[in-house]
């Protein structure tokens, strides 16, 4: 087993009504809060009302940054930093999905940097400190509620990049599955595909990873393929929503990365789809993952694929390649059952001439060609994009 350090410092309050923990969690870090939220879903669902009532009743001052976009923009991060500096904010409280939490994370580090926040996104070494974050999650998808990443877009530069730093783990996160009952079917499906993608990035490494991590990967994937289609059809199915919410956090909180390796090739390729076609992240992941799995199926990854087939779908057979391909087809069927299309054309791509540029940016900016046996060349990435056109 490879050496590793595992440290997830996020306190989780999981379950119905756990919003009541909000004042206590916030007060550990201060009494001046910036509430960060998106386009208004939290007002329609009543979560906003609950949160501000609790803050007010407990003598916590709050001001707001609303309008965080899906695929949050650096311009919104800049606005948040200004408010924090002006109001001397002590704690950030994002209420929403990954976009809102990621925006708060970028604000949290941007407050301590005198230059433009985009510098930090492109050069994480500029981070010196961060405001504490107490998040309230409303979509099961990215795992941002329990991880140390933030993904920010820059429309002006047609770019999307990550901040990764231990200091970004939220201090506390409130996970109430009933908050996700109102997530639309498409967003639910995209969220499930995103959870699966976080596992797939590690699943086919060909490494001898610890059994506990392997079993956890299977457990998360089984939750997704079973409860994903249920949650799409029955939005208020509490059991499905609860299992998916907890799976989302565990897919990416660092546990399965222990003793394992990934260069995150599929995410690097998906970010180019967001830049180019503004697709929802999880939908883009479903398209890329399906095509990438077909591309990387080889002697090196075969045992991982047959394990996946057996553990997640109960498929066994004499011909391991056929078993692996059947598992890939089953994976596609799960995406399609949830309503996700699997071609680039279906998300608005109309010019295959975009492919060379996307392939080059994904490979060179994310170092995909320097990932040992997992490496992808620009030509590999182009083939993957072409195969899902
Ligand atoms: O903006 P509002 O009005 O809140 O509506 C949102 C948004 O339109 C809506 N929504 C959220 N909760 C809802 C709801 N609608 C009804 N009821 C609710 N309870 O859902 C839409 C999507 O929200 P968003 O936050 O964008 O979704 P998601 O959680 O999938 O986040 C996607 C972003 O996270 C990044 C992605 O790249 C993308 O920018 N990622 C972040 C990661 C991380 N921090 O570790 C890892 C991921 O791989 C991913 O890259
Ligand atoms: Zn993702």
CATH fold category name of the largest domain = Dehydroquinate synthase-like, alpha domain
Biggest sheet features: 6 strands, parallel
Helix content: 40-55%
Tally the helices.
15
Name the hetero compounds present: 5,6-dihydroxy-NADP, zinc ion
The total beta strand count reads 8
Distance between the termini: 40 Å
Overall domain count: 2
SSE string, helix = H, strand = E? EHEHHEHEHHEEEEHHHHHHHHH
Question: What is the overall shape?
Answer: globular
Radius of gyration: 20 Å
Describe the strand arrangement of the main beta sheet, using strand numbers. 1-8-5-4-2-3
Q: For the record, what is the CATH homologous superfamily label of the largest domain? A: Dehydroquinate synthase-like - alpha domain
- The proportion of strand residues reads 5-15%
CATH-level-2 architecture of the largest domain: Up-down Bundle
Poorly predicted regions are none
Overall residue-averaged pLDDT value = 97
- Derived structural class: alpha/beta
Q: At the first level of CATH, what is the class of the largest domain? A: Mainly Alpha
């Amino acid at each position: 087993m490879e050496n590793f350090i595992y440290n997830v410092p996020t306190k989780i309050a999981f379950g119905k009504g756990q919003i009541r923990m909000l004042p206590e969690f916030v007060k550990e870090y201060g009494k001046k809060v910036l509430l960060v939220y998106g386009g208004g879903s939290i007002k329609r669902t009543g979560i906003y009302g609950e949160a501000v009532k609790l803050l007010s009743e407990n003598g916590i001052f709050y001001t707001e940054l609303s309008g965080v976009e899906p695929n949050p923009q650096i311009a919104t991060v800049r606005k948040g930093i200004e408010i924090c500096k002006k109001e001397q904010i002590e704690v950030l409280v994002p209420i929403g999905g990954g976009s809102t939490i990621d925006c708060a994370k970028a604000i949290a580090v941007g407050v301590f940097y005198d230059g433009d926040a985009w510098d930090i996104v492109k050069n994480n070494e500029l981070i010196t400190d961060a405001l504490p974050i107490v998040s309230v999650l409303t979509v099961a998808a990215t795992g941002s509620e329990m991880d140390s990443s933030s993904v920010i877009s820059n429309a002006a530069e047609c770019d999307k990049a990550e901040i990764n730093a231990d200091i970004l783990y939220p201090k506390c996160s409130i996970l109430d599955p009933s908050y996700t009952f109102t997530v639309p079917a498409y967003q639910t499906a995209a969220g499930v595909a995103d959870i699966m993608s976080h596992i797939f990035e590690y699943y086919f490494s060909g490494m001898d990873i610890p059994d506990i991590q392997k079993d956890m990967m299977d457990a998360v994937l089984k939750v997704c393929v079973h409860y994903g289609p249920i949650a799409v059809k029955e939005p208020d199915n509490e059991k499905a929503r609860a299992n998916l919410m907890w799976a989302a956090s565990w897919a990416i909180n660092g546990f399965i990365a222990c003793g394992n390796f990934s260069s995150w090739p599929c995410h690097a390729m998906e970010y180019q789809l967001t830049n180019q076609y503004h697709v929802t992240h999880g939908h883009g992941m479903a398209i890329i993952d399906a095509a990438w799995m077909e591309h990387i199926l080889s002697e090196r990854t075969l045992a991982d694929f047959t394990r996946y087939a057996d553990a997640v779908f109960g498929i066994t057979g004499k011909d391991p390649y056929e078993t692996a391909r059947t598992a890939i087809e089953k994976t596609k069927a799960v995406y399609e059952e949830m309503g996700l299309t699997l071609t680039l054309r279906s998300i608005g791509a109309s010019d295959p001439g975009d492919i060379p540029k996307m392939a080059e940016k994904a490979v060179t900016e994310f170092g995909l060609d320097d990932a040992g046996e997992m490496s992808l060349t620009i030509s590999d990435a182009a083939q993957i994009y072409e195969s899902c056109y």
